[in-house]
Design brief:
Strands 1, 3, 4, 6 and 7 form a five-stranded mixed sheet that branches. The chain has a two-stranded antiparallel sheet with strand order 2-5. 55% of the residues lie in helices and 11% in strands. The chain contains 14 helices and seven strands.
């Protein structure tokens, strides 16, 4: 899902756009119904829709452009052209096509939500929020519009609000895997924010006695325990979702996300699943031998974005970098570039008694324009 979440969106990794799922023909408005269509024309549109469903995006865009230009008041043609353009990574074209679809069918919540998503990709958050709000005003169960709101709140680091919107999308459409991934990212980050708040509220210093540490930890857990429970529940849901779709290309990503939720759901000092260890637990720590720089995105350079991105990741016993979570983000693609760079890190795994094990680390990337 481009430029969100991805970590989400993300970060996310980006799955098929939320509005790129095939939708049934909407009921025609009088303006659309007034256009004469023939069985041959309907079959032509159906053929273009099949191309889109089969992943033949370029061919679908070309076919739908021809159809829409000939049938200028056909809401279906413009709507599917917009979906195909979104999937082809052409949000400007998608925006224009969604707007044409809405001229024909101004009450179409699907087209309105699609327009909101295209505006999100075009980095027009206010416009995206306005269109998502309009979609939800006419169709409160519009899953894609809830998703756009969730993505916007995630961009603003309002993770609890993002989580609520993502869950609303899932209530409306339980099979919406991009919303499921966004909910997981939002929940992990909401938990991390709460963890920092509780650490500031109940600080544990170097000289804190054992009994006092226990008391302060228990006080923290009053607030943190519900987050941990929700992460375990969501991990189970994602695992079940992935197990039901063994051939889906998203399955591996979903399973890793479930694993990340399970890791995050453990209390400090509690043994994590598998061979995962903190730096304090290992005999020899993981040694990074190659850490590529992420580089600037064109947009971030143009907007003079500077600062740090901080990631929490697992350096696996098998040499893989996994379970990456952004714990400090930057906008305009810099978080995503950091995640991509982290995936390419080379390292010598940590060991315990000579046996390779996985270690949790924090990675930091600095972005400065000189």
């Amino acid at each position: 899902m481009p430029r969100t979440l991805t970590l989400l969106l993300l970060l996310s990794s980006l799955a098929a756009p939320p509005c790129a799922r095939a939708a049934p023909h909407a009921r025609q408005t009088p303006a659309a119904a007034s256009q004469q269509t023939t069985p041959q024309a309907d079959e032509e549109l159906e053929g273009a829709r099949r191309l889109l469903a089969q992943g033949e995006t370029t061919a679908a865009v070309a076919a739908l452009k021809r159809i829409a230009e000939r049938r200028k008041t056909d809401g279906d043609a413009w709507y599917y052209l917009a979906l195909a353009s979104t999937r082809a990574g052409k949000p400007k074209d998608a925006r224009k096509a969604f707007e044409r679809a809405l001229k024909v069918r101004p009450d179409s919540a699907q087209a309105r939500a699609g327009l909101a998503y295209a505006l999100l990709l075009l980095d027009k958050p206010r416009d995206a929020e306005r269109e998502a709000g309009r979609a939800l005003a006419s169709a409160p169960q519009q899953a894609e519009a809830h998703y756009v709101v969730a993505a916007l709140r995630f961009r603003e680091d309002k993770f609890s609000e993002s989580l609520n919107a993502a869950e609303a999308a899932l209530r409306a459409s339980p099979e919406f895997h991009a919303a499921l991934r966004l909910a997981a990212d939002a929940l992990i980050n909401a938990h991390y924010d709460e963890l920092l708040r509780q650490a500031r509220r109940y600080p544990i210093g170097p000289g804190t006695g054992k009994d006092e540490v226990k008391l302060l930890t228990e006080k923290r857990e009053i607030t943190l325990a519900p987050f941990r429970s929700r992460m375990r529940d969501l991990a189970e849901r994602i695992e079940a979702f992935a197990a039901a779709r063994p051939g889906d290309p998203e399955t591996a990503t979903l399973r890793e996300q479930a694993s990340t939720l399970r890791i995050a759901s453990h209390k400090p000092g509690e043994r994590s699943p598998g061979d995962l260890h903190s730096a304090a637990d290992v005999t020899t720590r993981a040694i990074i031998t190659f850490k590529p720089e992420p580089g600037y995105s064109e947009e971030a350079r143009r907007k003079n974005v500077q600062g740090n991105v901080r990631l929490r990741a697992v350096l696996g016993s098998d040499g893989s970098v996994r379970n990456i979570v952004a714990i400090k983000r930057l906008p305009n693609g810099l978080t995503e570039k950091s995640v991509e760079a982290a995936r390419k890190i080379k390292f010598t795994p940590a060991t315990i008694g000579g046996r390779p094990v996985s270690q949790v680390v924090v990675l930091e990337y600095n972005f400065n324009i000189y």
